[in-house]
Amino acid sequence: MNSDERVNKQSYITINGETALYGVIGNPVKHSFSPKMHSLAFQECGINAVYLPFLIQEIQLPQLLDAFTVSGVQGFNITIPFKEKIVPYLDLLSEEAAMLQSVNTVIQTAEGWKGYSTDGNGFIRSLTVADISIKGKRVLLAGAGGAARAIAVSLALAGVSELVIVNRTPKKADNLAELLRSTFPNLRISTILPTDLRSDIVINTTSVGMHDNGCPLPDTVLNHCRQVVDIIYNQPVTPLLKKAAERSIPYMNGIDMLLYQGIEAFEIWTGQKAPVETMRQSLIDSVYSSTAIGHIQKKGS
Ligand code: ATR
């Protein structure tokens, strides 16, 4: 049963004078999976709300929040290229968003517009549901872009003991390491890849392997590693994950991170538990839209 059929079995919300408005701003935005996922989630939960895509130009950002206030928008997501650019216009930031100076979820509160960054917590929740524990673990992180920053901060908050961050542009890895050192003095952090690294978890946050056969890290990092996670989600098994599978190392792709960052947003807006399976099925239908690849292998089984 696909996600539309799941929700068709529920009663539809009738749009009326009390319908709440949510959405996603971005440029481009038409490829976003969020309008379908959140609309189905609202329907399944019987919440009288719609979720729409908003194609925004950067020049419109200064007026955007006033326009949303007037239009009664209650919350929205932010995607490329506005995650950092929206920050100066917000009234409040969550702890993670303040550290990262990046926001992907906004809610209208009594004190004004409040911004959150749910990517990192979404990532941690995706590990938790896959029974991957991170407290006290040694993690190798490939990449130092926006996703890496969110993930690194959440890993630090969740209590990893050691983080090795490697990036094509070393300066960006150093900057991320500095940010973490200033907030988490007990976390061991390095930006140099040792020749014989033993890591509990290897995480790829780069785009290497998304549209090519490349691997973001040398094969040697897989010699002594217990778990591989690639946040790429456009294919169930990326080149890095294929190598993990060949070595019988448990692995996970990025679809659940995508799912749980959305679930976190839904819960921030509604205060309700999100309908995980409907949202998950919606993403799987959208991402792998042709034939159903319903089962994403998580643990090398
Ligand atoms: P996101 O928000 O998805 O993290 P991003 O902020 O643009 O996107 O970060 C992309 C990451 O992928 C960066 O770590 C980038 O490395 P640089 O900081 O050196 O740009 C990495 N990346 C992208 N293309 C790469 C490539 N061909 N080889 C190695 N790393 C690459």
In short:
By secondary structure, this protein is of the alpha/beta class. It is built from 10 helices and 12 strands. It has helices at 3-8, 34-45, 61-71, 95-100, 119-129, 146-157, 170-183, 239-246, 255-270, 276-287; strands spanning 20-26, 49-55, 73-78, 92-93, 105-109, 112-116, 138-142, 162-166, 188-190, 199-204, 225-230, 251-252.
Low-confidence stretches: 290-301
Strand content: 15-25%
Largest sheet: 6 strands, mixed
Whole-number mean pLDDT: 92
| Class based on secondary structure composition and strand pairing | alpha/beta
Radius of gyration: 19 Å
The assigned CATH architecture of the largest domain is 3-Layer(aba) Sandwich
Mind telling me the CATH superfamily name of the largest domain?
NAD(P)-binding Rossmann-like Domain
Which ligands occur here?
2'-monophosphoadenosine-5'-diphosphate
Gap from first CA to last CA: 24 Å
Helix content: 25-40%
CATH class categorisation of the largest domain? Alpha Beta
- Overall geometry comes to globular
- Count of domain modules: 2
Strand order of the largest sheet: 2-1-3-5-6-4
Number of strands: 12
How is the CATH topology of the largest domain named? Rossmann fold
Number of helices: 10
Sequence of secondary-structure elements:
HEHEHEEHEEHEHEHEEEHEHH
